[in-house]
Amino acid sequence: MGPKYNLNDFINACANIKSVGVRNEAQITARNQFKLDSKQSLLRFINERGMEDPYHYNTKLWEHNPDPSTPVMIDAYCFYSGTKYGYIAFRFNTKFNSWYIKSFKLNNDPDPRNMPFAKLGTLLTAKKKSEE
């Protein structure tokens, strides 16, 4: 499944602090892991394209939706920020016409930029074993 929402619409909405809510846990990890100390600094980071090369990770039904009669989807993206590999998940609230950041944190998956080195390590190990 592709993304439910247009990423650029979300990024542009981050220019208006009143248009985007941030879950407390997302703000804490933004502060601790990305040094984004406030909601304003987090939204500015997103709006000013601080998420480098974002790519769609998945789209899922919001599991904790208090109104299951109105399904809400959550889009998740992976991104880079300098040497950091991040993850963001967000949704749009049609009732209030606003966005909501559910997660903003370091990505738990291995950084794809390091994959060539992992393969190199495997090759070197195989070579060493064949020489023994």
Topology readout:
Elements: H1 7-13, E1 20-22, H2 24-34, H3 39-47, E2 52-61, E3 73-81, E4 84-93, E5 98-106, H4 115-131
Parallel strand pairs: 1-5
Antiparallel strand pairs: 2-3, 3-4, 4-5
In short:
The chain contains four helices and five strands; from the N terminus they run αβααββββα.
Structural class: alpha+beta
- The total tally of domains equals 1
- Percent strand equals 25-35%
Largest β-sheet summary? 5 strands, mixed
The tally of beta strands, per DSSP, is: 5
Count up the helices: 4
Roughly what is the average pLDDT, rounded to an integer?
89
- Strand order within the widest beta sheet: 1-5-4-3-2
Low-confidence stretches: none
Description:
The chain has a five-stranded mixed beta sheet. The longest helix is centred in the last third of the chain and has 17 residues, at 115-131. 33% of the residues lie in helices and 31% in strands. It is of the alpha+beta class. It is built from four helices and five strands; from the N terminus they run αβααββββα. A hairpin with a 4-residue loop joins β4 (84-93) and β5. It has one domain (7-131).
List the keywords.
about 130 residues, alpha+beta, 5-stranded mixed sheet, 4 helices, about 30% strand
